[in-house]
Design brief:
alpha/beta, Rossmann fold, 5-stranded parallel β-sheet, 145 residues
Length: 145
């Protein structure tokens, strides 16, 4: 029996926030998804925007150490993709639709640039989109793994 294929799974910022803040309603299914991903050897991917966003609340509270611990936790568990020229082209196409917020378009463009099977977000508006380079967009509760 061969090794199962590895899926590239992109987490939107909110998934990390749920884990860091420990909100049971969201943290429990997010933790369960991560455990399934580890068992399957799936690759966890996010963007440099997530590295920035997870630090904001702690920095507003003056807690630099906590902000950096969040950043470092993501660095230690996830492949970080940058907003590059390929992502910029996808971003521009996405922003033609003014309903897609700039931050969401950056996340989606970064995910599409590296070609992910699954984009995890609890943003219901994003779940309705079809984006070349992303096979499925769904909530953590509906993740098909």
């Amino acid at each position: 029996m061969g090794r199962p294929s590895v899926s590239k799974i992109f987490w939107d910022t909110n998934q990390y926030v749920y884990l860091f803040e420990g909100l049971p309603e969201f943290a429990i299914p997010t933790r369960a998804l991560r455990e399934r991903m580890i068992e399957r050897r799936d690759e966890l991917i996010t963007s440099t925007m997530t590295l920035a966003e997870v630090q904001v609340k702690a920095l507003r509270q003056g807690n630099t150490k906590l902000a950096h611990s969040f950043r470092d936790a993501i660095r230690g568990t996830s492949r970080i993709v940058a907003f590059d020229e390929v992502a910029a082209d996808t971003y521009a196409l996405l922003r033609v639709n003014q309903a897609i917020k700039p931050a969401d378009a950056i996340q989606l463009a970064c995910a599409a640039a590296v070609g992910v099977e699954l984009f995890i977000t609890n943003d219901k508006d994003l779940q309705k989109l079809t984006i070349p380079g992303i096979h499925f967009i769904c909530s953590v509760q509906r993740a098909p793994i």
